[in-house]
Amino acid sequence: MTRIAIVGVAGRMGRTLVNAIELEAEATLAGGVVAQGSSLAGADVGELAGVGKRGVVAVDSLESIVDDFDVLIDFTTPQVTLANLAFCAEHGKRIVIGTTGMSDDQLATLDSYRDRVPMVFAPNMSVGVNLTLKLLETAARALGDEGYDIEVIESHHRHKVDAPSGTAIKMGEVIAASLGRSLKEHGVFERVGQCGPRTDKEIGFATVRAGDIVGEHTVMFATEGERIEITHKASSRMTFAKGAVRAARWVADKESGHYDMQDVLGLA
Ligand code: NAD
User: Fold this and answer.
1) Per the CB 3.0–4.6 Å rule, which of 90, 127, 137, 221 could disulfide with 148?
2) What positions does the entry give for (S)-2,3,4,5-tetrahydrodipicolinate binding (predicted)?
């Protein structure tokens, strides 16, 4: 049984993580941390997440539950996550990090803990997306230099502020790496006006922003006579939460190291 504590338990992902732990027989909710001074400290974590009273009270300091958990799951902000990583190093805990938006310096600091903490860090915890990356690697290797044009099409809700999505870029990077290409050189992020015909090696990106789409990615490998499309569609945050809980169970018996979801899924 893996005892899991969640930092940022009152957040969108925090609440979803409580629901995901409920579905997992081999994991138990051992603690929930809210921001210091939050009025939600003292509330029942199960009630916060809408699953009913669970007898686990939200606290605003990790210190106060240090003996209660084995693995921390952290979906907060870069600064908070790095402070929690230091806490885990000091107290012999394991951590699963879903927080995004880290600067290069913050990523280097995170990585500097690889010898002191067993950690899983992935900006996309969806099992499906991580499997899709692996499928793309295989498809790109088989088709990319054989006359198949590669295009990445992604769709997200109307509120998303960046484009293309981080996941789409990651897909492009994986494809480029499999083919010995560089996304900087071969990525085409805009086509407008008299842009001329497509070149053989380019990897094209197209973006859709509409309504409440949670996140959809399709990679097309197209040639004369046939077209292969590999598609991933996320319809709820539960996919990220389930991936994080799976990662927490996986890292529970691992040595110190900086792992990602490819390691968790046995795809590395
Ligand atoms: P959110 O704002 O809803 O939740 C973050 C929570 O952290 C808030 O409740 C906030 O009060 C809390 N918090 C802030 N400081 C804290 C502290 N010191 N101690 C405890 N709690 C603290 O955001 P969200 O949508 O849940 O996303 C959180 C992060 O997870 C973002 O970086 C987001 O991009 C990332 N994310 C990653 C994945 C993935 O698959 N890796 C998926 C979804 C979101």
Assistant:
1) 221
2) 157, 166-167
Distance, in Å, from the CA atom of 155 to the CA atom of 208, rounded to the nearest integer, reads 4
Tell me which of 3.50.30.30, 3.40.50.720, 3.30.230.70, 3.40.50.620 is the CATH number of domain 2-121+237-264: 3.40.50.720
Query: Which segments are annotated as binding site?
Result: 8-13, 54, 98-100, 122-125, 157, 166-167
| CATH superfamily ID and name for 127-234 | Dihydrodipicolinate Reductase; domain 2 (3.30.360.10)
Residue nearest to atom 1 of ligand 1 (CA): 11
- State the distance from the centre of ligand 1 to the C-alpha of 78, rounded, in angstroms: 9
* Whether 160 is catalytic: yes
CB-based contacts of 106, cutoff 8 Å, min separation 6: 78, 82
- Helix residue ranges, H only, 112-179: 127-143, 166-178
Angle among Cα 204, 140, 259 to the nearest 5 degrees reads: 100
pLDDT of amino acid 124: 86
Model pLDDT for residues 16-27, shown as the tens digit of each residue: 999 999 999 999
82's CB contacts (< 8 A; 6+ apart) are 106, 109, 110
Is the preceding omega at residue 164 within 30 degrees of 0, hence cis?
Answer: yes
Instruction: State which amino acid sits at residue 197.
Output: P
Are 132 and 232 contacting, i.e. CB atoms less than 8 angstroms apart? yes
